[in-house]
Write a structure and sequence with these properties.
By secondary structure, this protein is mostly helical. Helix content is 28%, strand content 0%.
Length: 86
Amino acid sequence: MGTTAEDIARAEKLEGIGCSRKRKEDPRFVQGKGNYVDDVKLPGTLFADMVRSPYAHARIISINKKKALALKGVHAVYSLPMISNL
């Protein structure tokens, strides 16, 4: 740590572990006005969802993608063989 007046003033403001801090962002989040990453909606954004077997250690023999692809808003269905090279 430096010994300049600026460094000393900064160290005095830190006060140490466990002290309370005035957080600038709290009021907007407490009032419901904060922005989260999930609030950002960009045109053309797609979302992904992972579906797993409901059975532990199950061996998946095949996947029928037709029903999923027929749903409104579904653009693609990927399975392990399709993405294993990524």
